[in-house]
Structures are given as C-alpha cells and as structure tokens.
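Try this one yourself first.
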C-alpha cells in the first residue's frame, strides 16, 4: 500500500496539493479494534494496510465534510466510518428498509442495506462505496460495492479493496479524473466536461 499511496501523493502534489495536506495521520490499532468490535468481524488486511498510512481525510469541524478525494466522494476517517455504519444499522434495526427492494449485481446479497457493508466513502448525499464482508456465494469477502440511499442498484465495483484503490490510482495517472472546484473534488473527467 505504500506504493499506492506514493503514486497518489505524486498525483495530488502535481494537481491538487491542498488535498494531500488534508490527509489524516495513519489509523492506530485501537481505531481498527473499535470498528471491528462493533461489526463483529475483522476488516480486510489490505484495507487496514491502506488506512494505517492515512486514516482518510480531515473533515471540516463546522460542516463535517471535505472535498471529494475518491471520484467525488470523501475518503472517510475510521471514526466517521463508524458513525455512518451506526446510522445505517440503526435504520435497519428500526425496520426502515423492510419494504425496500434492491437490484444487486451478481456476488452481492439482495438487501437494501447489510450490517456487514462498511461505508468508507461518502458523497454528502447518503451514498457510499462500501466494503462487503457478507457477499453471496458467488462474491468475495472484502469486495467493494456501491450503494445509494434512494436507488435500488447495488453495484459490484471491485473484487477487493486492493483492486479498487489500484484501479482508481491508475485512472488518476492515466488522466481519467480531474480536480473540479465546481464539483468540490476529484471527479471523472467525462462528468466534468459534461457539467
């Protein structure tokens, strides 16, 4: 993960140096333990290796937000991962999703939300990129999925966190993403051009 972070640093320093300055220090053992104890399952080692270098982005004290680092999404610090996960779990336990029907990709269990989906990004609109620690029989534990608060799709993004982050950084290096002040973060170049 050091190599991935080094590539990401290089891109940020060339294109958006202020975002590099807004990364948190690495997460410690207790931060991982708090989240793992809550979800009742170990986090994937590749995810932990990534977060041990930088624990997501520093969030604005007033708004609780930040500019998008991951295709328009905020890379959440573990404390906020816990907050978002807890909010979704509470809604699930209250029965808020009992009548909701999703349309998941192959490899993803059919649910509106699953307590073993761990949101590690946020777009400030209730949508997340998540670790899926409870796939269906054709999926892989630790695969990366996209969920929406108001749309039925549950999309398989990558078979692991390592694959997800490596592909994203490669996309940055290949010019598929740009920084947009209007969109408040790094977004897909085609979306920026359409805006």
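Now uncover the answer:
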């Amino acid at each position: 993960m050091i190599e991935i972070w080094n590539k990401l640093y290089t891109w940020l320093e060339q294109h958006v140096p202020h975002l590099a300055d807004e990364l948190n220090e690495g997460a410690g053992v207790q931060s991982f333990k708090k989240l793992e104890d809550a979800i009742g399952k170990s986090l994937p080692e590749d995810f932990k290796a990534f977060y041990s270098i930088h624990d997501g982005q520093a969030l604005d004290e007033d708004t609780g937000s930040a500019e998008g680092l991951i295709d328009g999404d905020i890379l959440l610090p573990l404390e906020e991962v816990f907050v978002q996960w807890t909010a979704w779990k509470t809604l699930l336990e209250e029965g808020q999703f009992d009548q909701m029907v999703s349309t998941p990709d192959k490899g993803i269990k059919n649910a509106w939300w699953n307590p073993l989906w761990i949101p590690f990004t946020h777009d400030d609109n209730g949508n997340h990129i998540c670790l899926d620690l409870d796939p269906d029989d054709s999926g892989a534990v630790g695969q990366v999925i996209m969920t929406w608060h108001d749309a039925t799709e549950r999309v398989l993004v990558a078979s692991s966190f390592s694959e997800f982050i490596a592909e994203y950084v490669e996309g940055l290096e290949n010019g598929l993403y740009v920084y947009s002040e209007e969109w408040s973060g790094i977004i897909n170049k085609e979306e920026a051009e359409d805006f």
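Discussion: The chain has one domain: 2-189. Helices lie at 2-15, 17-21, 29-39, 45-51, 78-93, 161-173, 189-194.
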